[in-house]
Amino acid sequence: MAGTFYGIGVGPGDPELLTMKAIKAIEKADVLIAPKTEKKDGSVALSIAKPYLKKDIEIVYQVFPMVVNFETTDAWQKNKEEILALLQAGKNVVFLTLGDPMFYSTYIYVYRLLAKEKDINIETIPGVPAFCAIGSKLGYPLVEGNDIISVIPATADKETIDKALAVSNNVVMMKVYKNYPEIVDALTDNDMIENAVLVSRCGLPDEEVITDLPAQKDKKLNYLSTILTRRSKSV
């Protein structure tokens, strides 16, 4: 009998934020897939899930390069075949991802590749997105009443970002590490800088909170950085 493939969101950083369902799946897993970048060793997602791993669990690191038509590249196809072989051997395989599996996650594309295969059991277990954890930790309501909230990737073009900011009462800004100075300018121009707060590596030991974004406009940010903000007049 083939094993089950579990896509598990481990949340933003605090191991205690994993759901009971996620912990149970991790505890019974035979193999754990730890996605990593080509530039760095180790896996943040793996470090978060570590307290719940069996001592004899097999850990497989896989690199998923994000290039043009990445899902058809040799690296992605090799990863898929490796996962399929493990499942066909009857092993339960867990794929870890930061935050939620269906939210800006590599898992989305892995899921689509595997879902095309026959007789593959897939279960996706949600996790806590970073912006939800940040809001709870700081006592910062994400949205209330009839407010409109937008989740905006800072990697979008300026016109798209400005349009989204213009119609939103509250904003979650993701992926701000690449063009942070430009994002600070955009929030300033759209009357959303006064209430902005930036948190890097939420729930991890080196978590950092920045409340005066313009004062640290030139700061080099960690990849795991998120901004919460709202229009000044709504406060």
TrEMBL record:
User: What pathway does this protein act in?
Assistant: Cofactor biosynthesis; adenosylcobalamin biosynthesis
The source organism is: Megamonas hypermegale
Q: Which GO terms describe its molecular function?
A: cobalt-factor II C20-methyltransferase activity; precorrin-2 C20-methyltransferase activity
In its UniProt entry, what is this protein called? Cobalt-precorrin-2 C(20)-methyltransferase
Q: Which family does it belong to?
A: Belongs to the precorrin methyltransferase family.
The protein's gene is named cbiL
Q: Does the keyword Methyltransferase apply?
A: yes
- Using the UniProt record, name the top-level EC class of this enzyme in a single word: transferase
Sorted UniProt keywords = Cobalamin biosynthesis, Methyltransferase, S-adenosyl-L-methionine, Transferase
List, alphabetically, the Pfam families matched. TP_methylase
UniProt KW Lipid biosynthesis keyword: no
SUPFAM superfamilies from the UniProt entry:
Tetrapyrrole methylase
Query: What GO biological process terms are annotated to this protein in UniProt?
Result: cobalamin biosynthetic process; methylation
The family database entries (CDD domains) matched by this protein are listed as: Precorrin_2_C20_MT
InterPro entries given for it? 4pyrrol_Mease (IPR000878), 4pyrrol_Methylase_sf (IPR035996), 4pyrrole_Mease_sub1 (IPR014777), 4pyrrole_Mease_sub2 (IPR014776), CobI/CbiL (IPR012382), CobI/CbiL/CobIJ_dom (IPR006364)
Ranges for domain Tetrapyrrole methylase: 4-211
Instruction: Write the Enzyme Commission number(s) for this entry.
Output: 2.1.1.151
